[in-house]
Fold each of these.
Amino acid sequence: MINCTPLNAEHRALGARMVDFGGWDMPINYGSQVEEHHQVRRDAGMFDVSHMTVIDLRGARVREFLRRLVANSVDKLAKPGKALYTCMLDEQGGVIDDLIVYYLDDGFFRLVVNASTRDKDVDWITRHAAGFDVEVDVRDELAMIAVQGPTARERVHGVLPAEARDGATRLVRFGALSSGGLFIARTGYTGEEGYEIVMPADRAVGFWRDLLAAGVKPAGLGARDTLRLEAGMNLYGQDMDQSTTPLESGLAWTVAFDADRDFIGRGALEAQRDAGVPRKLVGVVLDDKGVLRHDQIVASGAGEGRILSGSFAPTLGKSIGLARVPAAAGDDLHVAIRDRSLPLRVVTPPFVRGGQPAAGI
Amino acid sequence: MGGEQRCAARLGAKLKSVGGCGPGRRDLKELFGLELQARPKPCSLETPMQEIPGDLKFLKSHEWARIEDDGTIRVGISDHAQSLLGDLVYVELPHVGDDVESGKACAVVESVKAASDVYAPVSGTIVEVNSDLADTPEVINNDAYGDGWLFTIQPAAASDSEFADLLEPNDYADLIENEDH
């Protein structure tokens, strides 16, 4: 049993190579993953991300519920239409998923969670929502298209109805609006400007074709992965999962230890913080020839670590990765690739900023 | 993670060919810890495969081999293999003078998404490697049966039967067709 998004036939007509992506039949590329990557860095590309799960939460106590459910503080969401990136933790501080929370009004928040974690997320959220009289609505009938790149916003504006266009033009980063059945968020997973646009499934094909006509080129999940890694963004299941905490995953910045807020996992995180976080996540660059891959062993003076995400970075022409290493590890890291031990350069992500190698990369 | 184990097993079944397995090695592996699986395409819109030259022989693991006029054997990966791997970004070749054994890994090709062993189709000694690929590995994507060759082997005296045992082009075409279904 495989799931198809409403855009499945569009992908095939565009010559996509389709893969089974966590139970979804998705385009990995439309010919060249590297060309699609450059297209997004230099102009504009679009991704079908309809496999992601949209969950709407409604109820008078929905904010109170989210103050408990997620590790970042929804108190930062002061104005309707603002979004927040956060982790959802279990009682041990393990990351159940990372997600974006959109504040729509005082009785209505929207979550967008990963496809691969859908069932456990929905179970967890539903279980905890019961105590707050919050209604959980999984919006399987919605499709989502991400349009990303330096020209993405103006190209999207060209295909929007007037009211939506006026609103979108004024959106701040991490802001969102609803207009005429479209939910438009100025968010993304590439490090570029752009939107993620949620719409009813029956409008997806028309919208996709309008974007194609406006010069936006399709890009597959392969390019999405190299783009997000260059942008220094974590991938759930690879860079963190339920056996790791945000503090050892480079996500401490997403945890708000604000006063009087008892979020799930807080006690475990505070205990880990006070005892000393044993491992850390660092960005690494391989200046030698070769490609960093998930699970390669990293040697440091303080013990062994692992490559989490690793790939060739098309913008840099060399390989980059995220590695989890002992907290005491210094900058003298080596990776084992087959029979060789190659030096790694430790850097602070992002690796790419504004379409160019970041300073020092 | 349990998910990865499951995936490695399924990949092994599906794409044994493109993955060689030393201990602890990770082979053709999809980007997100999930599965890369060539899926059947029910519609007729798929780009036709590049025609397979008739003077080639193949390993099930998607290497091609061709006898040159001087008796050496030129080796590369098939167009089908490059298409599965996607954009190639790095090639690790043997050294001239290395002895190789048929069926054993002797080179590695890496795409953005996966690393894959290349097996020697016959036993012998490496006499030439395509060093241009160090800077332009994408040539394999563009011309797998021509400029994208990897190395040539001076076959060992006893390797005639090894070459004879390789797959004929039609058999290889059948193999990849079945793999896709």
Amino acid sequence: MSLSRRDFLKLAGITTLSTLGSVSAVNLLRRDNIEASQVSPRPEALKAKRWAMVVDMRKFKTPEDYKRVIDACHSAHNVPDFGNPKDEVKWIWTDTFEHAFPGQESKYMPEGLKDKPLLLLCNHCDNPPCVRVCPTKATFKRSDGIVMQDMHRCIGCRFCMAACPYGARSFNWRDPRPYIRVENKEYPTRTIGVVEKCTFCTERIAKGLQPACVEESNGALLFGDLEDPDSEVRKALRTNFTIRRKSELGTGPGVYYIIGGSENA
Amino acid sequence: MLEKALTGSRRYWTWIFLLLGISGIGLIFYLKQLSYGLGITGMSRDVSWGFYIGQFTFLVGVAASAVMLVLPYYLHNYKVFGRITILGEFLAVASVTMCLLFIFVDMGQPMRIFNVLLHPTPNSIMFWDAVVLSGYLLLNIIVGWTVLGAEHKDVPPPGWVRPLIYLSIAWAPSIHTVTAFLYSGLPGRHFWLSAIMAARFLASAFSSGPSLLIILALIIRKFTRFDPGREAIQALGKIVTYFMITNVFFLGLEFFTAFYSNIPGHVYTFQYLYSGIEGHGKLVPMMWASNVLALIALILLINPKTRRNEKTLSIAAAAVFLSLWIDKGFGLIVGGFIPNPFERITEYWPTMPETLITLGVWAAGLLMLTVLYKIAVAVKEEETT
Amino acid sequence: MYDGGKIILGLIIFVAFVTFPFYNNIGKASKTPEPKLDTPAIQQMKERKCIEPKGFMRAEHMKLLNRWRDWVVRDGNSIYVASDGKRYAMSLQNTCMNCHSNKKKFCDECHNYVAVKPYCWDCHIAPKESET
């Protein structure tokens, strides 16, 4: 390829101009001189390609087992208790099999299993409908698979609540502060008019800790990287039959359930 | 032309101040909602959209229906509508404004509303709804005002307004299609998950909007010296007839798919709405009222004698409007949330503050409509004298 | 002049309305804010300095906090490397307020003076202070 001197100069001129143009555009857009290169995760932070959870229902035996796990989450995250279903806010809760897996129940399933509460929480979907519908990107999917909620940005339109097939999202219908029994001083509360949900404890993962519920579950909840064949989660999935809630909707839920038989009910 | 809204009879001013008063009451209760939170409404974790979003959805339809006057006049040169396209355009302006107000009062953090523009998210249907609604509002204000202004000055409308009119014709169905997409693309909400949703929305829009126009035209004839014309009203009556038949047909299709397939998720909401489930049936009387009204309307509309009689036509128009207001403004939105994703039933009914805020928004919209119609009618009256 | 009386009356009302803030505040000068740094945590420091130079913090703290929240909530970072190379956990509630445990005398002092009401505290829990 031969380039005449004239063409070369033209090309060089255009390149220079466009580079200058884009640099000044970037400078214009940058509103302050605080650089992003100044930040990093903690070295001890837990890392994964795709966080997921296995709920081993065989290991939940007494009401105490559930309460411990739920309380750990709700007290760590300042989740209020309004004492009425209308204003209710919850990140992790229980419901029976037929309500957790509608359409999967049968008349003749083990008696104990029918009424046994299942632990429910946000499924941190591969393809989350809540993220798809959010008009401000207030809810978004992190690169490690966690579906996160930015309470600073949420405008409270509640489109995500209509979109979530798992009923995992709660809205602050009123000021939650007076209804928080014991405040965790290290975690914020919420303001009225924003949506909240389970975050897989991003604040704890960032410090190298397991999620609060997992830590309190005595091995009944497993948390790990779905893409790492040696993770706790993958080991459990390899050796047990698991089901996921409403996976037929194409959401790719990241919470797996080991239900077990009547002997565990 | 605005000055025409500043002079009027005693009746005009009484009406204006009545509407101002009602929106004032609404505003007071809105301020209360702002400080207490949306918990002041009947909405809950399970039924997270209610009256406000229902009204919004219904009114998008009313707004879109302006095209039913604009299209025949500008594309088919149907002269009879020439006199009253402005009524359709100004109705659209007032309706879209009400839509935006209803969205606003439904938001948990209204002061953050510009986050939608600050962080534009093309994968969100809500983002597109904001785009098409504001676009439609702008188009109708520009077109309506310009054409009316030209009429006021006795000159033909400027040429540049023509392309905008064609654009507004294409734009009208888009606002209601996008609004239907808000609902019809959500996995796990079986009642809404229907490809026919947008078509249903348009059919109900093009029957409820023109019904309202018939009533408004009759009111204008009664109280002013401007007559929208018997032929125009009759043509609107035919439009309402065909679209109401289509609308009921579409609803029938939904029933068939739900009940013949017998898939529980698809059946439940219909059962809840029309017969109640396990003793929960707060909406059942409303939904049957809607059905009965639709039936009455169809009888009066299909029968040529009653359709041609303006008295019975106005009854039919009112029945259509009310029937669809219940069906869309209430049943469709609330029904989508019942039963909830756990197949449990939480019922919904608007609270007193919620109702007053809703009334306030309606009053504000009517106020805007009154002022706009006052101007339009005053210009029209100039011609007749 | 037609309707002269009405116009003059209207003008008087308008002028009275527009100048309201001035005559309403005559003789009520607010005192200059004096944010206090006398918390126990700050007094125990060997070298009493904030994460960035005082001038920068005074002018830019709101922008810095704005970036912090995006970096933490949206990007999953938690450590801020200051211009002197020191590392801090990015947290209003747990880092800033650990030293500045006197929200009333530190934050509110200036915010009230310039009449801004940051909504940080709608969610973030302010340190316990004795009523003064």
